[in-house]
Write a structure and sequence with these properties.
This protein is mainly alpha-helical. It is built from two helices and two strands, in the order E-E-H-H. Helix 1 runs antiparallel to helix 2. The structure holds zinc ion. The site of zinc ion has 8 residues, from loops.
């Protein structure tokens, strides 16, 4: 008996897909536009930060904003460590730089 085991190559060799521009990052939360789950309205901000023509979080309290982002990432099922890391990165976004 011959069993033919067909190995399905699950590893897809990622062809470098050229974006129109360099990967743009949200100036508010540092999310690269390629990771944006929605359609960004603004070329400065992602679809989560900027909706209906305005910033979702208009305040300037970084800590509060980070908390909101963390919660929203967790809600989207991101693992806590990753979510924590991205939350940490927010402080380097253009919006929060002084
Ligand atoms: Zn954003």
């Amino acid at each position: 008996m011959t069993k033919t085991v067909t190995k399905t190559a699950t590893k897809d060799t990622s062809k470098s897909v050229r974006n129109k521009k360099e990967d743009q990052m949200c100036e508010s939360c540092m999310m690269p536009s390629s990771k944006d789950p929605g359609k960004p309205e603004s070329d400065k901000y992602c679809s989560l930060c900027f909706q209906n023509g305005k910033l979702v979080y208009p305040g300037n309290n970084l800590k509060e904003f980070q908390k909101l982002c963390y919660q929203s990432m967790r809600r989207r099922g991101m693992n806590p460590l990753k979510a924590w890391f991205f939350t940490f990165m927010i402080r380097f976004a253009k919006r929060w730089k002084k």
